[in-house]
Amino acid sequence: MSSDRSLPSAQIILVEDETIIAYELRVRLSMLGHRVLGVFRKGEDACEAARATMPDLMLIDIILAGKIDGIETAKRVRALGSTRIIFLTANTDESTRQRALTVAPEGFLLKPFTEDELRETLAAALAARP
Known about the structure:
- The chain is built from five helices and five strands.
- By secondary structure, it is of the alpha/beta class.
- Strands 2-1-3-4-5 form a five-stranded parallel sheet, with helices on both faces.
- α2 (43-53) packs parallel to α3 (70-80).
- The chain is globular and about 30 Å long.
């Protein structure tokens, strides 16, 4: 695993209800030099954390446990400010993708993804900072 020193460090909230994936992502993000502010299984909890911490970026699984899905979570976070959004998904059906696009995410990562795909998607999202 190589670290890209040109990639800016970011404060990130991870919203993923699959424990193994969440753990692996947290480790990968830390190894890339980012600070993971929290890992949440439910969109409602992630929204509260985003309100309190205003992260640079959130990686959000589209399908989540809880009352709201990842797309609704992202909409609520967008209303708070300039947090960047990357959707994580194994679900690629067109209606879900179109619904997700209404949030104008900075990227999508299709599960399973490689470390290079993660790094490239993070770089693009962080380059889009205001």
